[in-house]
From TrEMBL:
Cross-referenced SUPFAM superfamilies: GST C-terminal domain-like, Thioredoxin-like
Record's protein name: Glutathione S-transferase
Catalytic EC class: transferase
Organism name: Variovorax paradoxus
GO annotation, biological process: glutathione metabolic process; L-phenylalanine catabolic process
The keyword Nucleotide-binding belongs to this UniProt entry's keyword annotation: no
CDD domains with a match to the protein in the record: GST_C_3, GST_N_1
Length: 227
């Protein structure tokens, strides 16, 4: 049985992506959660993950003797291993576009990721309003998300970014949780897309688990001192 190593479900957006992808696509795996205690070299987290992959980070997929780390690499490996799951869009041009937006998420949206870390069980709308007021670059990231999603939903008629579920939806699922946590204003069509994604069984299962964790990790909480 392949194993997927992940961090805390409430906080680990990169772990969420391949977990949701595999769960929603019906790819069997064993979950191995490694709690965020610290990212210091001598922490339990770093020691555990350092024994699994050379960068000592989550997520990591172990499939027999093979270890694949990095979310996008895991997604590509799964798409090649399970072609019948159609994890990327079928048409070549659409696959290229889906890969482009996933790579954009992978490398971009720095202000959204740094200022609004994923925290599924928190409600931080007042923080979100202040952050948008003080950080034009955060508004620019949000505007790009709205532009991207709106264009794809219009082009494909929904319900998801490329019609049916794909790697792209799993890749942006954590963005939807950030938008809700921080009360970031988006058009109704975008809110509706977020709700559709969060209603997917694979996404809902992750969110339910995150809400059940009840694990407060202080260094992942820039805006709260307690739950």
């Amino acid at each position: 049985m392949r194993k997927l190593y992940i961090g805390n479900k409430n906080y680990s957006s990169w772990s969420m992506r391949p977990w949701v992808l595999m769960k929603q696509a019906g790819i069997p795996f064993e979950e191995v959660k490694v709690r965020f205690d610290s990212f210091a070299p001598d922490s339990h987290f770093k020691k555990t993950m350092g024994a699994i992959n050379p960068v000592a980070e989550v997520p990591a997929l172990v499939d027999g003797e093979l270890v694949v780390w990095d979310t996008l690499a895991i997604a590509e490996y799964l798409a090649e291993t399970f072609p019948e799951k159609q994890l990327w869009p079928r048409a070549a041009a659409e696959r290229a576009r889906a890969r482009s937006i996933c790579a954009e998420m992978h490398a971009g949206f720095g202000k959204l990721r740094s200022l609004c870390p994923m925290n599924i069980e928190a409600s931080l709308a007042e923080v979100g309003a202040r952050l948008l007021k003080d950080n034009p670059a955060l508004q620019a990231d949000l505007d790009r998300i709205v532009q991207m999603w709106s264009g794809l939903l219009d082009a494909h008629g929904g319900p998801l970014l490329f019609g049916g579920f794909s790697i792209a939806d799993s890749y942006f699922a954590p963005v939807g949780t950030r938008i809700k946590t921080y009360g970031l204003p988006v058009p109704p069509a975008i809110s509706a897309y977020i709700e559709r994604v969060q209603a997917l069984p694979g996404v809902k299962a992750w969110i339910d688990d995150a809400l059940a964790e009840k694990d407060f990790v202080a260094f992942n909480e820039p805006y709260r001192t307690a739950r």
